[in-house]
Design goal:
115 residues, mainly alpha, 2 domains, 3 helices, 0% strand, flat
């Protein structure tokens, strides 16, 4: 088996392991009452460019896998910036969601009206 195929097999096995762990954690039987519920006033966030940023990062990572030199798993000049953009987008999205949650918990959005 060529090195490229070995790399893709290892990548696939890694993805299956991660998905298996996520499935095992999410399928554990837990009482629904123990899960946190959003405070009153949490609503959908406003328009954001973060989904576009994640898509751009994913597209660059895919292009890095597609446009590679012979014998390489990926083109590092395309895939690494894509990975950095993707991770930065995920971090920004999680921070924005946490900020919204904290704002609502402290009452700045809790006016009782529909948003």
């Amino acid at each position: 088996m060529p090195d490229t195929a070995t790399g893709f097999v290892l990548l696939g096995i890694g993805m299956l392991v991660v998905l298996g762990i996520v499935f095992a954690i999410s399928s554990r039987g837990g009482a629904p009452a123990t899960r946190p519920t959003p405070p009153r006033g949490v609503h959908l966030p406003g328009p954001s460019a973060l989904p576009v940023v994640l898509s751009l990062g994913g597209a660059l990572m895919g292009a890095g896998l597609a446009f590679r030199a012979e014998g390489q798993l990926a083109n590092p000049f395309i895939a690494i910036p894509g990975l950095v953009i993707f991770v930065a987008g995920v971090v920004a999205w999680v921070r924005a969601a946490n900020h919204e949650w904290r704002d609502v918990e402290h009452g700045s959005h809790d006016d009782g009206s529909a948003h």
